[in-house]
């Protein structure tokens, strides 16, 4: 069972909290082993929108490296330090030091900074809070105009609804793009805001359209991206000709063919495996490349200039 611990500050924004909670609870409803815990320094937390929320003051015991700690943002974060005591900040830092992932939504990045997790790392926050974050934590690199950043298991997202995008990305990294796409469709969140973020999941970047035929084909590719998939097979499953599918797909995704979309998913998954210690040969085999040289060529082609 993977725990998702949501740390609630006084004045927590409801959507900062509800977005990640909905993503992971939807994944749990689809059979993934997620359990959500709501923790705070007091049992009753008043949200920024006035709704009172209950929280546990005792943290779940024995959080492990596969568990996720999420800090949603709160109102008036620019006034003084984050509303957490030293003990809570120490727990945030300890979870990361133990190999766990720590994520923030909006002003929640302030708590990560106070816990010492932003020094030397890239991060982001709500556009109205970016200057303040950079001032408070001069040893971090605040990335502007992006939905979220990831840097050594420290994941920060921009304002409010971007917590949904962050959480879908984490699902895609942990379980592959098919689950993230399934959760996104269940939540009716195909559209991407600011889709130029290079670290965003391909499942999300290329779902900002309303073409049901293309969505069906993407669902198939997302589920079986490591398998050989011919254009004729995809077209037959969609009930259209290969020529029509190519035309619809490239129009909906901004220029990608079905094959290029599949390669993008393979490359994204391979990069994750490589970052976690896999060899190029192992990663290539895992994502469906019979020849590791193909993975090397794709990585070189997509490397920053």
TrEMBL record:
<dbReference type="InterPro" id="IPR018060">
    <property type="entry name" value="HTH_AraC"/>
</dbReference>
<keyword id="KW-0804">Transcription</keyword>
<dbReference type="InterPro" id="IPR002818">
    <property type="entry name" value="DJ-1/PfpI"/>
</dbReference>
<dbReference type="GO" id="GO:0043565">
    <property type="term" value="F:sequence-specific DNA binding"/>
</dbReference>
<keyword id="KW-0805">Transcription regulation</keyword>
<dbReference type="InterPro" id="IPR009057">
    <property type="entry name" value="Homeodomain-like_sf"/>
</dbReference>
<dbReference type="GO" id="GO:0003700">
    <property type="term" value="F:DNA-binding transcription factor activity"/>
</dbReference>
<protein>
    <submittedName>
        <fullName>Transcriptional regulator GlxA family, contains an amidase domain and an AraC-type DNA-binding HTH domain</fullName>
    </submittedName>
</protein>
<dbReference type="InterPro" id="IPR052158">
    <property type="entry name" value="INH-QAR"/>
</dbReference>
<dbReference type="Pfam" id="PF01965">
    <property type="entry name" value="DJ-1_PfpI"/>
</dbReference>
<dbReference type="Pfam" id="PF12833">
    <property type="entry name" value="HTH_18"/>
</dbReference>
<keyword id="KW-0238">DNA-binding</keyword>
<dbReference type="InterPro" id="IPR029062">
    <property type="entry name" value="Class_I_gatase-like"/>
</dbReference>
<feature type="domain" description="HTH araC/xylS-type">
    <location>
        <begin position="215"/>
        <end position="305"/>
    </location>
</feature>
């Amino acid at each position: 069972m993977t725990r998702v611990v949501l740390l609630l500050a006084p004045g927590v924004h409801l959507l900062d909290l509800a977005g990640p909670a909905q993503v992971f609870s939807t994944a749990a409803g689809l059979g993934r082993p997620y359990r959500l815990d709501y923790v705070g320094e007091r049992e009753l937390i008043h949200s920024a929108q006035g709704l009172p929320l209950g929280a546990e003051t005792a943290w779940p015991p024995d959080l492990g490296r596969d568990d996720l700690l999420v800090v949603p943002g709160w109102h008036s974060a620019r006034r003084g330090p984050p509303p957490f005591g030293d003990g809570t900040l120490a727990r945030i830092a300890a979870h990361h030091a133990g190999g766990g992932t720590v994520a923030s939504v909006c002003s929640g990045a302030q708590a990560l900074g106070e816990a010492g997790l932003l020094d030397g790392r890239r991060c982001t926050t709500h556009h109205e809070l970016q200057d303040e974050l950079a001032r408070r934590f001069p040893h971090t690199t605040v990335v502007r105009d992006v939905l979220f950043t990831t840097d050594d298991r420290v994941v920060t997202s921009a304002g409010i609804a971007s917590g949904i995008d962050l959480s879908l990305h984490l699902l895609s990294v942990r379980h592959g793009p098919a689950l993230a796409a399934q959760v996104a469709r269940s939540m009716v969140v195909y559209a991407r805001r600011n889709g130029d973020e290079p670290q965003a999941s391909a499942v999300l970047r290329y779902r900002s359209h309303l073409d049901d035929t293309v969505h069906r084909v993407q669902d198939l590719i997302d589920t079986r991206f490591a398998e050989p998939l011919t254009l004729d097979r995809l077209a037959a499953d969609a009930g259209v000709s290969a020529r029509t599918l190519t035309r619809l797909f490239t129009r909906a995704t901004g220029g990608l063919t079905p094959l290029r979309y599949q390669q993008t998913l393979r490359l994204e998954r391979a990069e994750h495996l490589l970052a976690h210690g896999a060899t190029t040969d192992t990663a290539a085999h895992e994502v469906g490349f019979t020849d590791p040289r193909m993975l090397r060529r794709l990585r070189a082609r997509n490397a920053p200039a």
